[in-house]
Amino acid sequence: MRPQLFTTISIAVVFVLAYLWVAATLGLPLGKFAFWLLAPTTWWGITSDAMMYLGVFTLQSLAIRERKRRQQVNQKKPRTFLDLQTE
Predict the structure, then answer these.
(1) Same domain, 33 and 3
(2) Which structural domain range is residue 64 located in?
C-alpha cells in the first residue's frame, strides 16, 4: 500500500519541528533560527500558533463532515422477510 502524500508531508514536518526544538535546546546548527522561529513571543510564533489552531479546527470539522457523509452512504436498507424470500 502506498503512503498518502499528506501523511508523508505531515511526518516530515513533525521531524523538522522536532529537530528545530532539539537544536534550539542543545545549541545545534540552526538552533538560533529555530529559537526565533518557534518562540511564541515573535510575530512568526504568534502567527504560526494561530494558523495551527485554525488548521486543527478546520481539519476536525472536515473529518466530522466526511464521517457523517460516509455513514449516510454506508447505511443499508433494512432487510425484511420478503427480501429474504426473493433471494
Answers:
(1) yes
(2) 40-75
